[in-house]
């Protein structure tokens, strides 16, 4: 279990990161810093137009924050950029999201007519990104009065093209701000990933493994989306980096749905609501197959539509949940309600329904952060319940161990008492036996005294057997045994062998301990002789059943009646009418315990007015 100090350190680290993140998001560059005078957009459906062709086209005025992607077209952006007051360099920055291809064209004036610059006098050349930032940045020097710059963009996936043209000092501040926001965000997501791994090791709860996988693939996807792929994977070609990035989109989507499905299953939602998660997973897998085999853009659109339906799936499962799992139905519904709101706000910003620039440009981070923290809260409450349950289980275990130790001590004391009692009783019985062997008493008195002695000896033997069974110290020597031979010896050693009828094959070999088999059969035989009507027969029949042998002991019901079927194998149980006879109520309990110890089964199966016990051995 993690220490209290470690928990405090993690919480302080999260608070520090959140302070940096929201502080950076709350301090955007002012409108006066941006040197972009106007922005125009033109769609090249054929993707074949050159810069010279585009110069003749009409551009639609747009804002400097543009949503692009999910198209095979090439988008052209025309930027009218003004110079700085000191005519220094201007830095053009792009964000958020990594497009498949971005080309930046700057004008180069080659001649003039009557002092007026014309299109034919301007040549455009492609610039290589020369500004140190994860996403493309370019240094330009606009002439007095400003100039038009063009950007050609291709992106199969969704991106927010947040364009700014800033003086170099402001660009440095903006770039630093971006680094703070992004690194803080990625660090916080990495902390959540490590926390999930730590909780998985501690609790062995599979829920944390799903969350750890989700956080890991989110980290991979967000790192590539933010433009760090060129730095982290410089040895890979752009096409391979593109494939890795887009694949991470599908993998992170799959694990996101799988994680929420695993969470909701614990609350037992309606069958149809739970199947919605399965449909999402199937759609994501099919979309990925479509991506690698046929149409990447259509596949990304299907995947995006599938994720857009996530809030409705969350709400359907939360509303129909029936089982009060940890951390509680109400808590789960509140958390998933907030998570659905985060999804909706992010979608509304992308669609332009909500006009909040920060939410549009940083929506992926805000949504990722809110999702991570809400799921952290849910799992933290789950972990708290697990720790409480573990502490309670530990306390219960300690109490059971204490009770067991106390019971062992009581059993030990009782065992010593029984051993002492048995020893003294046997000595006394020996003296009595010698006394009744004299000719001074009648045969009837001698028979009754001998019967009482045998009853006392049997009682002492039962106590000894009980001690061995309860202490689990009974030696077990399993081997092939012939039960016919064992039963014949018991019948021969009986005081009334003529009462015992044995129906059996020549041999019936079972796997057992010959000594313990003798104890089990002896107890059942003695029980039948004691409680059956005087001089009535006792039947023992052996038959093969399945891959073993069934031994049936049967006798008529005597004056004491039949035992209670629910209590017949309980320790010390005796029929109230049977208490007129010497006995301990241990014979059947010991027979049942020893039979189970040898891998057999003993059942009470009465029929009409007959007492019947059936034993089966392999």
Automatic annotation (TrEMBL):
Cited Gene3D superfamilies: 2.60.40.2380, Histidine kinase-like ATPase, C-terminal domain (3.30.565.10)
Domain Histidine kinase, chain residue ranges per copy: 420-618
Gene Ontology molecular function: ATP binding; phosphorelay response regulator activity; protein histidine kinase activity; protein kinase activator activity
Segments passing through the bilayer: 179-200, 207-228, 240-260, 272-294, 300-321, 333-358, 364-381
Species annotation: Roseovarius gahaiensis
Name assigned to this protein: histidine kinase
Signal peptide (residue range): 1-31
GO biological process: osmosensory signaling via phosphorelay pathway
Alphabetized UniProt keyword annotations: ATP-binding, Kinase, Membrane, Nucleotide-binding, Signal, Transferase, Transmembrane, Transmembrane helix, Two-component regulatory system
E.C. number: 2.7.13.3
Keyword Manganese recorded: no
Keyword Zinc-finger included in the entry's annotation: no
Catalytic activity: ATP + protein L-histidine = ADP + protein N-phospho-L-histidine
Domain of life of the organism encoding this protein: Bacteria
